[in-house]
Amino acid sequence: MRIPPRFSQGIVVSILGLATLVTLSILIFIIGFILEKGLPVVGLGFLFTLPQDMGRAGGIFPTVVASILLPLIAVCIAVPLGVGTAVYLTEYTRESAVTRIIRFGADCLAGIPSIIFGLFGFIFFVTILRMGWSLLSGGLTLALMILPTLIRTTEEAIKAVPNAYREVSYSLGATRLRTVWRVVLPNALPGIVTGVMLGVGRSVGETAAVIFTAGSSLRLPSSIFDSARTMSVHFYILAREGISTENAYGTAAVLILSVLAINAVAYGLMNRFIRRRS
Amino acid sequence: MRLSGEKWVQRALFAVSFSAIGGLLLIALFILKEGLPFIFNVGIENFLFAKKWEPQAGLFGILPMIVASLWVTAGAMIMGAPLGVAGAVFLVEFTPKSVMRVIKPTIELLAGIPSVVYGFIGVMVLAPLIRSHLGGPGLSVLAASLILGVMILPTVISISIDAITAVPNSYREGSFALGATRWQTVRMVVLKAARSGIVASIILGMGRAIGETMAVIMVAGNAVKIPHSSLDSVRTLTANIALEMGYATGLHRQALFATGVVLFVVIMILNSAASAMVKNRMGGRK
Protein backbone atom coordinates (compact mmCIF):
# COMPACT_ATOMS: atom_id res chain seq x y z
CA MET A 1 0.00 0.00 0.00
CA ARG A 2 1.30 3.44 -0.87
CA ILE A 3 1.44 6.01 1.89
CA PRO A 4 -0.36 9.16 0.81
CA PRO A 5 2.14 12.01 0.22
CA ARG A 6 0.27 14.37 2.55
CA PHE A 7 0.46 11.83 5.34
CA SER A 8 4.16 11.13 4.94
CA GLN A 9 4.78 14.87 4.83
CA GLY A 10 2.99 15.21 8.14
CA ILE A 11 5.20 12.57 9.71
CA VAL A 12 8.41 14.04 8.34
CA VAL A 13 7.53 17.56 9.42
CA SER A 14 6.85 16.39 12.96
CA ILE A 15 10.19 14.57 13.05
CA LEU A 16 12.07 17.59 11.71
CA GLY A 17 10.25 19.88 14.09
CA LEU A 18 11.13 17.60 16.97
CA ALA A 19 14.80 17.64 15.94
CA THR A 20 14.79 21.44 15.91
CA LEU A 21 13.09 21.53 19.29
CA VAL A 22 15.66 19.11 20.74
CA THR A 23 18.52 21.22 19.39
CA LEU A 24 17.17 24.45 20.79
CA SER A 25 16.29 22.96 24.14
CA ILE A 26 19.76 21.43 24.61
CA LEU A 27 21.43 24.74 23.89
CA ILE A 28 19.03 26.69 26.09
CA PHE A 29 19.37 24.08 28.84
CA ILE A 30 23.15 24.63 28.89
CA ILE A 31 22.79 28.36 29.35
CA GLY A 32 19.97 28.01 31.87
CA PHE A 33 21.86 25.41 33.90
CA ILE A 34 25.01 27.50 34.20
CA LEU A 35 23.15 30.70 34.98
CA GLU A 36 20.94 29.04 37.58
CA LYS A 37 23.90 27.58 39.47
CA GLY A 38 26.28 30.45 38.83
CA LEU A 39 24.35 33.67 39.18
CA PRO A 40 23.77 33.36 42.95
CA VAL A 41 27.56 33.41 43.38
CA VAL A 42 28.03 36.46 41.18
CA GLY A 43 27.89 39.93 42.64
CA LEU A 44 29.93 43.09 42.55
CA GLY A 45 32.14 41.61 45.24
CA PHE A 46 32.79 38.51 43.12
CA LEU A 47 33.71 40.62 40.11
CA PHE A 48 35.88 43.18 41.85
CA THR A 49 37.81 41.40 44.59
CA LEU A 50 41.04 39.46 44.36
CA PRO A 51 40.92 35.67 44.49
CA GLN A 52 42.26 33.96 47.59
CA ASP A 53 43.75 30.51 47.98
CA MET A 54 44.05 29.73 44.22
CA GLY A 55 40.46 30.82 43.63
CA ARG A 56 38.88 28.75 46.38
CA ALA A 57 37.63 31.94 47.94
CA GLY A 58 37.40 35.58 46.97
CA GLY A 59 36.55 37.02 43.58
CA ILE A 60 37.83 36.89 40.04
CA PHE A 61 38.98 40.48 39.50
CA PRO A 62 42.37 39.74 37.82
CA THR A 63 40.72 37.35 35.37
CA VAL A 64 38.11 39.98 34.44
CA VAL A 65 40.93 42.44 33.77
CA ALA A 66 42.80 39.85 31.69
CA SER A 67 39.62 39.00 29.75
CA ILE A 68 39.30 42.68 28.82
CA LEU A 69 42.97 43.36 28.08
CA LEU A 70 43.70 40.26 26.02
CA PRO A 71 40.91 40.71 23.44
CA LEU A 72 41.74 44.43 23.35
CA ILE A 73 45.35 43.68 22.40
CA ALA A 74 44.22 41.08 19.86
CA VAL A 75 41.78 43.53 18.26
CA CYS A 76 44.35 46.36 18.14
CA ILE A 77 46.69 44.08 16.20
CA ALA A 78 44.10 42.35 14.03
CA VAL A 79 42.00 45.37 12.97
CA PRO A 80 44.64 47.15 10.88
CA LEU A 81 45.61 43.85 9.24
CA GLY A 82 42.06 42.61 8.68
CA VAL A 83 40.58 45.90 7.50
CA GLY A 84 43.64 46.56 5.34
CA THR A 85 43.28 43.16 3.70
CA ALA A 86 39.57 43.69 3.09
CA VAL A 87 40.14 47.17 1.63
CA TYR A 88 42.83 45.84 -0.65
CA LEU A 89 40.68 42.92 -1.82
CA THR A 90 37.61 45.03 -2.52
CA GLU A 91 38.87 48.48 -3.51
CA TYR A 92 42.38 48.10 -4.87
CA THR A 93 42.41 44.99 -6.98
CA ARG A 94 40.38 42.69 -9.19
CA GLU A 95 39.77 38.98 -8.70
CA SER A 96 42.97 37.20 -9.69
CA ALA A 97 45.21 34.35 -8.70
CA VAL A 98 46.66 36.56 -5.97
CA THR A 99 43.29 37.37 -4.38
CA ARG A 100 42.38 33.70 -4.56
CA ILE A 101 45.53 32.83 -2.62
CA ILE A 102 44.77 35.53 -0.04
CA ARG A 103 41.21 34.26 0.40
CA PHE A 104 42.39 30.65 0.56
CA GLY A 105 44.80 31.62 3.32
CA ALA A 106 42.06 33.32 5.31
CA ASP A 107 39.67 30.37 4.86
CA CYS A 108 42.28 27.85 5.98
CA LEU A 109 43.29 29.98 8.96
CA ALA A 110 39.62 30.09 10.00
CA GLY A 111 39.48 26.29 10.20
CA ILE A 112 42.63 25.72 12.25
CA PRO A 113 41.83 24.39 15.73
CA SER A 114 42.73 26.58 18.67
CA ILE A 115 45.16 24.06 20.14
CA ILE A 116 47.30 24.45 17.00
CA PHE A 117 47.26 28.22 17.50
CA GLY A 118 48.30 27.54 21.08
CA LEU A 119 51.21 25.33 19.98
CA PHE A 120 52.32 27.89 17.43
CA GLY A 121 52.03 30.82 19.81
CA PHE A 122 53.99 28.88 22.42
CA ILE A 123 56.88 28.03 20.11
CA PHE A 124 56.94 31.29 18.12
CA PHE A 125 55.92 34.18 20.38
CA VAL A 126 56.66 32.70 23.80
CA THR A 127 59.86 30.79 23.04
CA ILE A 128 61.55 32.02 19.85
CA LEU A 129 60.65 35.72 20.13
CA ARG A 130 61.23 35.48 23.90
CA MET A 131 58.05 37.25 24.91
CA GLY A 132 57.40 34.60 27.55
CA TRP A 133 53.94 33.83 28.83
CA SER A 134 52.44 37.27 28.49
CA LEU A 135 49.40 39.26 27.46
CA LEU A 136 51.38 40.24 24.35
CA SER A 137 52.04 36.63 23.27
CA GLY A 138 48.40 35.75 23.91
CA GLY A 139 47.15 38.85 22.11
CA LEU A 140 49.29 38.16 19.04
CA THR A 141 48.11 34.54 18.91
CA LEU A 142 44.46 35.56 19.27
CA ALA A 143 44.94 38.28 16.64
CA LEU A 144 45.88 35.60 14.11
CA MET A 145 42.88 33.56 15.20
CA ILE A 146 40.30 36.31 14.73
CA LEU A 147 41.87 37.71 11.55
CA PRO A 148 39.79 35.59 9.11
CA THR A 149 36.46 36.63 10.69
CA LEU A 150 37.51 40.25 10.56
CA ILE A 151 38.53 40.06 6.90
CA ARG A 152 35.32 38.28 5.94
CA THR A 153 32.90 40.64 7.73
CA THR A 154 34.76 43.79 6.65
CA GLU A 155 34.76 42.60 3.05
CA GLU A 156 31.01 41.98 3.15
CA ALA A 157 30.46 45.39 4.72
CA ILE A 158 32.56 47.19 2.11
CA LYS A 159 30.85 45.35 -0.75
CA ALA A 160 27.50 46.50 0.63
CA VAL A 161 28.45 50.19 0.24
CA PRO A 162 26.66 51.30 -2.96
CA ASN A 163 28.90 52.17 -5.88
CA ALA A 164 27.13 55.49 -6.34
CA TYR A 165 28.79 56.73 -3.13
CA ARG A 166 32.22 56.06 -4.60
CA GLU A 167 31.33 57.64 -7.93
CA VAL A 168 30.13 60.83 -6.27
CA SER A 169 33.34 61.00 -4.28
CA TYR A 170 35.49 60.49 -7.39
CA SER A 171 33.46 63.04 -9.32
CA LEU A 172 34.30 65.58 -6.65
CA GLY A 173 37.94 64.96 -7.39
CA ALA A 174 38.74 62.79 -4.37
CA THR A 175 41.57 60.30 -4.69
CA ARG A 176 41.02 56.61 -4.11
CA LEU A 177 42.55 56.75 -0.65
CA ARG A 178 40.36 59.71 0.32
CA THR A 179 37.29 57.93 -1.03
CA VAL A 180 38.07 54.80 0.96
CA TRP A 181 38.86 56.76 4.11
CA ARG A 182 36.04 59.31 4.03
CA VAL A 183 33.26 57.48 2.18
CA VAL A 184 33.66 53.71 2.05
CA LEU A 185 34.98 52.93 5.54
CA PRO A 186 32.56 55.19 7.47
CA ASN A 187 29.66 53.59 5.65
CA ALA A 188 31.02 50.10 6.27
CA LEU A 189 31.70 50.81 9.94
CA PRO A 190 28.79 48.84 11.48
CA GLY A 191 29.88 45.76 9.55
CA ILE A 192 33.47 46.20 10.68
CA VAL A 193 32.35 46.59 14.29
CA THR A 194 30.37 43.34 13.90
CA GLY A 195 33.57 41.56 12.90
CA VAL A 196 35.45 43.11 15.80
CA MET A 197 32.78 42.08 18.30
CA LEU A 198 32.71 38.51 16.99
CA GLY A 199 36.49 38.44 17.37
CA VAL A 200 36.25 39.77 20.92
CA GLY A 201 33.60 37.17 21.74
CA ARG A 202 35.80 34.39 20.44
CA SER A 203 38.84 35.72 22.32
CA VAL A 204 36.94 35.95 25.61
CA GLY A 205 35.73 32.36 25.31
CA GLU A 206 39.01 30.91 24.09
CA THR A 207 41.03 28.63 26.36
CA ALA A 208 43.39 26.30 24.51
CA ALA A 209 45.19 29.02 22.56
CA VAL A 210 45.42 31.31 25.59
CA ILE A 211 46.63 28.95 28.29
CA PHE A 212 49.88 28.18 26.42
CA THR A 213 50.59 31.77 25.36
CA ALA A 214 49.33 34.08 28.09
CA GLY A 215 49.93 31.56 30.84
CA SER A 216 47.81 31.27 33.94
CA SER A 217 49.22 33.63 36.54
CA LEU A 218 46.48 34.77 38.91
CA ARG A 219 48.20 38.05 39.72
CA LEU A 220 46.84 41.33 38.42
CA PRO A 221 48.88 42.07 35.27
CA SER A 222 50.74 45.38 35.40
CA SER A 223 52.02 45.45 31.81
CA ILE A 224 51.50 43.61 28.54
CA PHE A 225 54.64 41.61 29.27
CA ASP A 226 53.02 40.00 32.31
CA SER A 227 51.40 36.61 32.31
CA ALA A 228 47.67 36.70 33.03
CA ARG A 229 44.77 34.31 33.44
CA THR A 230 41.54 34.99 31.57
CA MET A 231 38.10 34.03 32.88
CA SER A 232 37.86 30.99 30.63
CA VAL A 233 41.29 29.71 31.68
CA HIS A 234 40.43 30.37 35.33
CA PHE A 235 37.13 28.53 34.92
CA TYR A 236 38.90 25.61 33.27
CA ILE A 237 41.47 25.36 36.07
CA LEU A 238 38.84 25.68 38.81
CA ALA A 239 36.66 23.00 37.23
CA ARG A 240 39.36 20.59 36.15
CA GLU A 241 41.45 20.64 39.29
CA GLY A 242 38.33 20.58 41.44
CA ILE A 243 39.40 23.72 43.28
CA SER A 244 35.96 25.18 43.80
CA THR A 245 32.80 24.08 42.02
CA GLU A 246 30.90 27.04 43.37
CA ASN A 247 33.37 29.60 42.04
CA ALA A 248 33.62 27.65 38.79
CA TYR A 249 29.87 28.05 38.27
CA GLY A 250 30.11 31.73 39.12
CA THR A 251 32.96 32.31 36.67
CA ALA A 252 31.13 30.33 33.99
CA ALA A 253 28.02 32.47 34.46
CA VAL A 254 30.02 35.69 34.03
CA LEU A 255 31.80 34.17 31.04
CA ILE A 256 28.61 33.06 29.29
CA LEU A 257 26.83 36.33 29.94
CA SER A 258 29.71 38.39 28.56
CA VAL A 259 30.14 36.25 25.45
CA LEU A 260 26.40 36.21 24.73
CA ALA A 261 26.16 39.98 25.27
CA ILE A 262 29.12 40.62 22.97
CA ASN A 263 27.73 38.34 20.26
CA ALA A 264 24.25 39.83 20.63
CA VAL A 265 25.66 43.31 20.00
CA ALA A 266 27.56 41.95 17.00
CA TYR A 267 24.53 40.29 15.39
CA GLY A 268 22.26 43.19 16.32
CA LEU A 269 24.56 45.61 14.53
CA MET A 270 24.79 43.31 11.53
CA ASN A 271 21.02 43.01 11.21
CA ARG A 272 20.53 46.77 11.44
CA PHE A 273 23.26 47.22 8.87
CA ILE A 274 21.65 44.75 6.46
CA ARG A 275 18.21 46.30 6.89
CA ARG A 276 19.56 49.76 6.15
CA ARG A 277 21.22 48.53 2.98
CA SER A 278 18.28 46.64 1.55
CA MET B 1 53.10 64.36 -4.41
CA ARG B 2 49.62 63.04 -3.81
CA LEU B 3 49.97 60.45 -6.54
CA SER B 4 53.05 58.92 -4.99
CA GLY B 5 51.22 58.82 -1.65
CA GLU B 6 48.47 56.79 -3.30
CA LYS B 7 51.01 54.36 -4.68
CA TRP B 8 52.57 53.97 -1.27
CA VAL B 9 49.23 53.22 0.33
CA GLN B 10 48.44 50.67 -2.33
CA ARG B 11 51.73 48.90 -1.72
CA ALA B 12 51.21 48.93 2.03
CA LEU B 13 47.73 47.46 1.66
CA PHE B 14 49.08 44.83 -0.71
CA ALA B 15 51.65 43.84 1.90
CA VAL B 16 49.06 43.81 4.69
CA SER B 17 46.72 41.62 2.67
CA PHE B 18 49.20 38.77 2.95
CA SER B 19 48.88 38.72 6.74
CA ALA B 20 46.39 35.84 6.83
CA ILE B 21 48.19 33.58 4.37
CA GLY B 22 51.48 34.64 5.97
CA GLY B 23 50.17 33.66 9.39
CA LEU B 24 49.00 30.33 8.02
CA LEU B 25 52.43 29.66 6.49
CA LEU B 26 54.20 30.65 9.72
CA ILE B 27 52.01 28.29 11.69
CA ALA B 28 52.58 25.46 9.22
CA LEU B 29 56.31 26.15 9.14
CA PHE B 30 56.86 26.14 12.88
CA ILE B 31 54.61 23.18 13.65
CA LEU B 32 56.32 21.18 10.90
CA LYS B 33 59.79 22.33 11.91
CA GLU B 34 59.25 21.14 15.47
CA GLY B 35 57.34 17.99 14.60
CA LEU B 36 58.61 16.53 11.33
CA PRO B 37 62.22 15.78 12.36
CA PHE B 38 60.84 13.82 15.29
CA ILE B 39 58.58 11.75 13.05
CA PHE B 40 61.50 10.86 10.80
CA ASN B 41 63.83 10.11 13.70
CA VAL B 42 61.44 7.85 15.53
CA GLY B 43 60.04 6.38 12.33
CA ILE B 44 56.48 6.67 11.06
CA GLU B 45 55.56 3.14 12.13
CA ASN B 46 56.79 3.74 15.69
CA PHE B 47 54.78 6.94 15.87
CA LEU B 48 51.54 6.58 13.93
CA PHE B 49 51.03 2.84 14.31
CA ALA B 50 52.47 2.03 17.73
CA LYS B 51 50.17 1.45 20.69
CA LYS B 52 52.36 2.52 23.57
CA TRP B 53 52.64 6.15 24.67
CA GLU B 54 55.23 6.24 27.45
CA PRO B 55 57.30 9.40 27.02
CA GLN B 56 59.60 8.56 29.94
CA ALA B 57 60.48 5.24 28.31
CA GLY B 58 60.93 6.83 24.89
CA LEU B 59 57.79 5.19 23.47
CA PHE B 60 55.70 7.59 21.43
CA GLY B 61 52.95 5.59 19.74
CA ILE B 62 49.84 7.66 19.05
CA LEU B 63 47.63 4.95 17.56
CA PRO B 64 45.32 4.96 20.62
CA MET B 65 44.85 8.71 20.24
CA ILE B 66 44.17 8.45 16.51
CA VAL B 67 41.56 5.74 17.10
CA ALA B 68 40.07 7.80 19.93
CA SER B 69 39.86 10.97 17.83
CA LEU B 70 38.22 9.06 14.97
CA TRP B 71 35.75 7.28 17.22
CA VAL B 72 34.76 10.38 19.17
CA THR B 73 34.40 12.41 15.96
CA ALA B 74 32.36 9.70 14.25
CA GLY B 75 30.06 9.60 17.26
CA ALA B 76 29.69 13.37 17.20
CA MET B 77 28.82 13.29 13.50
CA ILE B 78 26.22 10.53 13.97
CA MET B 79 24.48 12.73 16.48
CA GLY B 80 25.18 16.23 15.25
CA ALA B 81 24.89 15.94 11.48
CA PRO B 82 21.32 14.55 11.18
CA LEU B 83 20.04 16.78 13.96
CA GLY B 84 21.67 19.85 12.46
CA VAL B 85 20.56 19.24 8.88
CA ALA B 86 17.03 18.34 10.05
CA GLY B 87 16.90 21.59 12.00
CA ALA B 88 18.08 23.59 8.99
CA VAL B 89 15.53 21.97 6.65
CA PHE B 90 12.73 22.51 9.12
CA LEU B 91 13.63 26.14 9.73
CA VAL B 92 13.96 27.10 6.07
CA GLU B 93 11.21 25.04 4.48
CA PHE B 94 8.56 24.47 7.12
CA THR B 95 8.54 27.56 9.33
CA PRO B 96 7.49 31.11 8.48
CA LYS B 97 10.29 33.57 7.68
CA SER B 98 9.58 35.54 10.84
CA VAL B 99 10.27 32.50 13.04
CA MET B 100 13.49 31.80 11.23
CA ARG B 101 14.57 35.41 11.65
CA VAL B 102 14.43 34.85 15.41
CA ILE B 103 15.81 31.33 15.62
CA LYS B 104 18.79 31.59 13.27
CA PRO B 105 20.50 34.42 15.21
CA THR B 106 19.72 32.57 18.44
CA ILE B 107 21.53 29.50 17.16
CA GLU B 108 24.46 31.60 15.91
CA LEU B 109 24.60 33.26 19.30
CA LEU B 110 24.91 29.83 20.85
CA ALA B 111 27.93 29.10 18.69
CA GLY B 112 29.69 31.53 21.01
CA ILE B 113 29.27 29.41 24.16
CA PRO B 114 32.90 28.75 25.15
CA SER B 115 34.05 25.16 24.76
CA VAL B 116 35.09 24.91 28.40
CA VAL B 117 31.45 25.48 29.34
CA TYR B 118 30.33 22.57 27.17
CA GLY B 119 32.99 20.45 28.82
CA PHE B 120 31.83 21.47 32.27
CA ILE B 121 28.22 20.54 31.44
CA GLY B 122 29.56 17.20 30.24
CA VAL B 123 31.31 16.62 33.56
CA MET B 124 28.52 17.82 35.81
CA VAL B 125 25.46 16.48 33.99
CA LEU B 126 26.24 14.00 31.25
CA ALA B 127 29.00 11.88 32.79
CA PRO B 128 27.06 11.08 35.99
CA LEU B 129 24.03 10.13 33.87
CA ILE B 130 26.11 7.75 31.76
CA ARG B 131 27.84 6.31 34.82
CA SER B 132 24.62 5.53 36.64
CA HIS B 133 22.56 4.30 33.68
CA LEU B 134 25.05 2.62 31.36
CA GLY B 135 28.01 1.87 33.61
CA GLY B 136 31.70 2.53 33.04
CA PRO B 137 33.59 5.56 34.31
CA GLY B 138 31.15 8.05 32.78
CA LEU B 139 33.92 10.15 31.29
CA SER B 140 34.02 8.27 28.00
CA VAL B 141 33.83 8.13 24.22
CA LEU B 142 30.06 8.41 24.50
CA ALA B 143 30.15 11.53 26.69
CA ALA B 144 32.70 13.19 24.41
CA SER B 145 30.70 12.29 21.29
CA LEU B 146 27.48 13.68 22.72
CA ILE B 147 29.08 16.94 23.85
CA LEU B 148 30.89 17.40 20.53
CA GLY B 149 27.69 16.51 18.68
CA VAL B 150 25.97 19.42 20.43
CA MET B 151 28.94 21.73 19.91
CA ILE B 152 28.92 21.32 16.14
CA LEU B 153 25.16 21.92 15.85
CA PRO B 154 25.40 25.71 15.39
CA THR B 155 28.04 25.28 12.64
CA VAL B 156 26.06 22.61 10.78
CA ILE B 157 22.71 24.38 11.11
CA SER B 158 23.94 27.82 10.18
CA ILE B 159 25.87 26.77 7.04
CA SER B 160 23.12 24.33 5.97
CA ILE B 161 20.55 27.11 6.31
CA ASP B 162 22.66 29.28 4.00
CA ALA B 163 22.94 26.44 1.47
CA ILE B 164 19.20 25.69 1.51
CA THR B 165 18.20 29.36 1.30
CA ALA B 166 20.51 29.76 -1.70
CA VAL B 167 18.44 27.28 -3.75
CA PRO B 168 16.46 29.47 -6.19
CA ASN B 169 12.73 29.63 -5.53
CA SER B 170 11.99 28.82 -9.16
CA TYR B 171 13.17 25.24 -8.44
CA ARG B 172 10.55 24.91 -5.72
CA GLU B 173 7.84 26.53 -7.83
CA GLY B 174 8.59 24.17 -10.73
CA SER B 175 8.20 21.21 -8.41
CA PHE B 176 4.96 22.53 -6.87
CA ALA B 177 3.58 23.12 -10.36
CA LEU B 178 4.10 19.41 -11.05
CA GLY B 179 1.87 18.65 -8.06
CA ALA B 180 4.56 17.69 -5.56
CA THR B 181 3.98 18.28 -1.84
CA ARG B 182 6.39 20.43 0.11
CA TRP B 183 8.24 17.43 1.52
CA GLN B 184 8.53 15.80 -1.90
CA THR B 185 9.93 19.08 -3.20
CA VAL B 186 12.41 19.29 -0.35
CA ARG B 187 13.50 15.68 -0.72
CA MET B 188 13.76 15.51 -4.49
CA VAL B 189 14.65 19.07 -5.47
CA VAL B 190 15.89 21.31 -2.67
CA LEU B 191 18.15 18.82 -0.88
CA LYS B 192 19.68 17.72 -4.19
CA ALA B 193 20.41 21.32 -5.17
CA ALA B 194 21.81 22.22 -1.75
CA ARG B 195 23.72 18.95 -1.34
CA SER B 196 27.26 20.28 -1.67
CA GLY B 197 26.64 23.12 0.78
CA ILE B 198 25.15 20.72 3.29
CA VAL B 199 28.08 18.34 2.90
CA ALA B 200 30.43 21.30 3.39
CA SER B 201 28.63 22.18 6.62
CA ILE B 202 29.08 18.62 7.86
CA ILE B 203 32.77 18.59 6.92
CA LEU B 204 33.35 21.89 8.71
CA GLY B 205 31.52 20.52 11.73
CA MET B 206 33.79 17.48 11.57
CA GLY B 207 36.85 19.74 11.51
CA ARG B 208 35.54 21.51 14.58
CA ALA B 209 34.94 18.17 16.33
CA ILE B 210 38.40 16.77 15.58
CA GLY B 211 40.10 20.00 16.58
CA GLU B 212 38.14 20.60 19.78
CA THR B 213 40.36 20.37 22.81
CA MET B 214 39.17 21.74 26.12
CA ALA B 215 35.69 20.19 26.13
CA VAL B 216 37.14 16.82 25.18
CA ILE B 217 39.83 16.92 27.86
CA MET B 218 37.13 17.46 30.44
CA VAL B 219 34.73 14.71 29.34
CA ALA B 220 36.71 11.96 27.58
CA GLY B 221 38.61 10.67 30.62
CA ASN B 222 42.05 10.85 28.96
CA ALA B 223 43.22 7.24 29.46
CA VAL B 224 45.77 6.29 26.81
CA LYS B 225 44.37 3.04 25.43
CA ILE B 226 42.57 1.83 22.37
CA PRO B 227 38.87 1.92 23.28
CA HIS B 228 36.84 -1.29 23.05
CA SER B 229 33.46 0.19 23.81
CA SER B 230 31.77 3.59 23.81
CA LEU B 231 31.91 3.56 27.59
CA ASP B 232 35.72 3.44 27.72
CA SER B 233 37.79 6.41 28.76
CA VAL B 234 39.95 7.74 25.90
CA ARG B 235 42.47 10.44 25.07
CA THR B 236 42.21 12.26 21.73
CA LEU B 237 45.07 13.79 19.72
CA THR B 238 44.14 17.28 20.84
CA ALA B 239 43.85 16.27 24.49
CA ASN B 240 47.26 14.59 24.30
CA ILE B 241 48.87 17.86 23.23
CA ALA B 242 47.11 20.07 25.74
CA LEU B 243 47.54 17.73 28.72
CA GLU B 244 51.29 17.31 28.42
CA MET B 245 52.42 20.56 26.79
CA GLY B 246 52.71 22.28 30.15
CA TYR B 247 55.65 20.20 31.35
CA ALA B 248 57.05 18.38 28.30
CA THR B 249 60.66 18.97 27.30
CA GLY B 250 63.08 17.66 24.67
CA LEU B 251 61.97 14.64 22.69
CA HIS B 252 58.66 14.52 24.55
CA ARG B 253 57.83 18.06 23.47
CA GLN B 254 58.79 17.28 19.88
CA ALA B 255 56.44 14.31 20.04
CA LEU B 256 53.60 16.64 21.02
CA PHE B 257 54.39 18.92 18.08
CA ALA B 258 54.44 15.82 15.87
CA THR B 259 50.95 15.05 17.18
CA GLY B 260 50.11 18.62 16.15
CA VAL B 261 51.44 17.90 12.66
CA VAL B 262 49.05 14.95 12.30
CA LEU B 263 46.16 17.12 13.47
CA PHE B 264 47.16 19.99 11.18
CA VAL B 265 47.32 17.72 8.13
CA VAL B 266 43.92 16.16 8.86
CA ILE B 267 42.32 19.58 9.34
CA MET B 268 43.85 20.99 6.15
CA ILE B 269 42.49 18.02 4.19
CA LEU B 270 39.01 18.52 5.66
CA ASN B 271 39.06 22.28 5.03
CA SER B 272 40.18 21.86 1.44
CA ALA B 273 37.41 19.30 0.91
CA ALA B 274 34.84 21.69 2.35
CA SER B 275 35.97 24.65 0.27
CA ALA B 276 36.10 22.45 -2.87
CA MET B 277 32.48 21.50 -2.13
CA VAL B 278 31.44 25.12 -1.83
CA LYS B 279 33.30 26.06 -5.04
CA ASN B 280 31.60 23.19 -6.85
CA ARG B 281 28.27 24.62 -5.82
CA MET B 282 29.20 28.08 -7.05
CA GLY B 283 30.44 26.57 -10.32
CA GLY B 284 27.29 24.55 -10.80
CA ARG B 285 25.08 27.56 -10.25
CA LYS B 286 26.42 29.60 -13.16
Question: Can you put this structure into words, describing what you see?
Answer:
The complex is a heterodimer of chains A (278) and B (286). Chain A is an all-alpha fold and 278 residues long. Helices cover 76% and strands 1% of the residues of chain A. In chain A, a hairpin with a 4-residue loop joins strand 1 and strand 2. Chain A is globular and about 65 Å long. Chain A starts with a helix and ends with a helix. In chain B, 78% of the residues lie in helices and 1% in strands. In chain B, strands 1-2 form a two-stranded antiparallel ribbon. Chain B is mainly alpha-helical and 286 residues long. Chain B has one domain: MetI-like (MetI-like fold, Orthogonal Bundle), CATH 1.10.3720.10. In chain B, helix 12 runs antiparallel to helix 13. Chains A and B meet through helix 1, helix 3, helix 4, helix 5 and helix 6 of A and helix 1, helix 2, helix 4, helix 5 and helix 6 of B.
Task: Give a brief description.
The complex is a heterodimer of chains A (278) and B (286). With 278 residues, chain A is mainly alpha-helical. Chain A has helices spanning 5-38, 44-48, 61-92, 97-111, 114-128, 135-159, 163-171, 176-205, 208-211, 231-240, 245-277, and strands at 51-52, 57-58.
List the helices and strands and how they pair.
The complex is a heterodimer of chains A (278) and B (286).
Chain A: H1 5-38, H2 44-48, E1 51-52, E2 57-58, H3 61-92, H4 97-111, H5 114-128, H6 135-159, H7 163-171, H8 176-205, H9 208-211, H10 231-240, H11 245-277
Antiparallel strand pairs in A: 1-2
Chain B: H1 2-16, H2 19-42, H3 44-47, E1 53-54, E2 59-60, H4 63-93, H5 97-110, H6 115-134, H7 141-165, H8 169-177, H9 182-193, H10 195-211, H11 214-220, H12 237-244, H13 250-285
Helix pairs in contact in B: 2-13, 4-7, 4-10, 5-7, 6-7, 6-11, 7-10, 7-11, 8-9, 10-13, 12-13
